[in-house]
Amino acid sequence: MRVLLLGASGYLGRFVADRLLADPAVQLTALGRSDEADVRFDLSTGSPGALTRFLDAVHPGVVVNCAGTTRGSGRELIRHNVVATAAVCESLRRSGCGARLVHVGCAAEYGSAQAGSSTGEDAVPRPGGPYGVSKLAGTELVLASGLDAVVLRVFSPIGPGTPAGSPLGRIAEAMRRAMQQGDSELKLGGLSVQRDFVDVRDIARAVHAASLSAAQGIVNIGTGRAVRLRDATSLLARVAGYAGSVHDQGGGPAGQGPAEGQPAGAGPGAPGGQVVGGAPAIPAQQHGAQPAPASYPYPDGCGGWQQADVRTARDRLGWRPRIGLEESLADIWMEAACRI
What we know:
- The chain has helices at 11-21, 48-58, 74-94, 130-143, 167-181, 200-212, 229-240, 311-317, 325-337; strands at 2-6, 27-32, 39-40, 62-65, 100-106, 149-154, 156-158, 185-188, 194-195, 197-199, 217-221, 227-228, 245-248.
- It is α/β, with parallel strands linked by helices.
- A 7-stranded parallel beta sheet has the order 3-2-1-4-5-6-11, sandwiched between helices. Strands 7-10 form a two-stranded parallel sheet. The protein has a two-stranded parallel ribbon with strand order 8-13.
């Protein structure tokens, strides 16, 4: 099976490439903007005609689209998450290869959900920020393309390679600095949010399974279990061997009240906490110093709760997550510890 992978050098794309290369039946070609790609091509600026000619030459049976960006201005988000996806769809329509499209979407397309609920694929998307809006637009283009296509809506990816700018990446870095400096107390903000954390290697397995399946439409990829960021932080501390105490200084999602156990005055503007989410974590403020910057909401625009309904992935892809949260966090910590 010939597979064309778009975005192979990105966070998810690297693990998808590894998974596909492990299948002896797969002949993989990587196309992207980096020098690591087999073929250099910028989907956001390249012409659909040029991509069509490449598809006709390579004649893949499956195209996997992991390309895109998670940050930047609205213009950049549209260019990389919408225009690029439109180019892929148009090229596949023009091409005679008849390839199946596996498009990697994001749970940020759903937006916030009611606490305690599991979000199914039939939920009405209400993205809470520009990133989610741009990813939803890309998904709608794929679904309306008339192609043999499936969209994997990935919930919160973690594990090896977790970006240092992500919430858990920043927490690991703050913990590393606390251990390096001998701090016995770590104050963090915004730990009350709950997310469905799924290991990036399990996501790669889902992409592989989707490539081999006949599933179409939207399929959620998550664990089906929301975990409070505070609990993930406690588990990370245990994995890291951090013997100090970790305090939640509030600063949850916009519109959310104080974290559990916090006084009414604590919250997004409470001093003394480290920033997690919208800005790098910073050391706790010393007595007499200027107040710490306000804590920012979790950066996906999904409020305080997200949890996937993963029955469709089980039934149509034969996929279940295999890697537990502790193993994912151990890999995040290993990379952070290497910077000591």
